[in-house]
Design goal:
191 residues, alpha/beta, Rossmann fold, two-stranded antiparallel ribbon, 9 strands, binds S-adenosylmethionine
Length: 191
């Protein structure tokens, strides 16, 4: 679906305000058990850049977003990371990474778009590369202010990722409420 939210300066600034006080530190702590320090990481949907900053303490991180508004805000903040304008579905880049990370970004894709994204992630990951993605848990799917919010279950995520990735961690965590979110960490399987 075509997203409208996040694509204007007003909505980007609105999201930044709403997300104040939230970060992916807990997720990145988990990732550190599976991904060596110094690895190259592509973050999808960096948005305000909160996780970009935390990830950069351990990894060589490329930030990205499909919204130029967020990238402009990151440039204004003098972020030193390389930044790409990148759609999480098509992932059109010739760069290759050790890991692809996203925090509450793939929730904006339809199921079909998520399948496309998973397959395209394989093309830009090194052999044995990793993915680390968070999702809202459940079976809701609704559109709000022009953005899709597509929740997922453990069973769905396992069935979609496991043909291509060895699932190393798939578990609930608490973002706003108990078990309202899911973290998936996986390692690309050999062809
Ligand atoms: C809920 S926000 C999460 C932002 C950031 N990861 C965080 O944890 O605060 C979703 C982010 O995904 C981006 N986004 C939405 N759809 C996208 C797509 N198809 N490709 C790339 N980024 C997308 C938005 O611009 C926004 O930055």
């Amino acid at each position: 679906m075509t997203e409208r939210y996040y694509l204007t300066n007003e909505t980007a600034v609105q999201y930044i305000k709403m997300a104040e006080g939230y970060d992916g530190k807990e997720l990145i702590e988990k990732l550190k058990s599976y991904l060596s320090a110094g690895s190259t990481v592509l973050e999808l949907g960096s948005g305000p850049g909160t996780d970009l900053e935390v990830l950069s303490q351990y990894y060589h991180v490329t930030g990205s977003d499909f919204s130029q508004q967020f990238l402009d805000i990151l440039v204004e903040k003098n972020v030193s990371n390389e930044l790409l304008i990148l759609d999480a579905i098509t992932l059109k880049t010739d760069k290759i990474f050790d890991c692809i990370y996203s925090n509450k970004v793939l929730q904006h894709l339809t199921n079909d778009e998520l399948f496309q994204s998973i397959k395209n992630q394989l093309h830009i990951l090194d052999d044995g590369g990793s993915v680390c993605h968070s999702f809202w848990a459940g079976d809701d799917c609704y559109e709000m202010k022009g953005a899709l919010h597509n929740y997922h279950t453990l069973v769905e995520l396992e069935s979609w990722f496991s043909p291509y990735f060895e699932i190393q961690l798939l578990e609930f965590y608490d973002e706003m409420e108990k078990d309202d979110s899911i973290l998936l960490i996986g390692k690309k399987l050999k062809n």
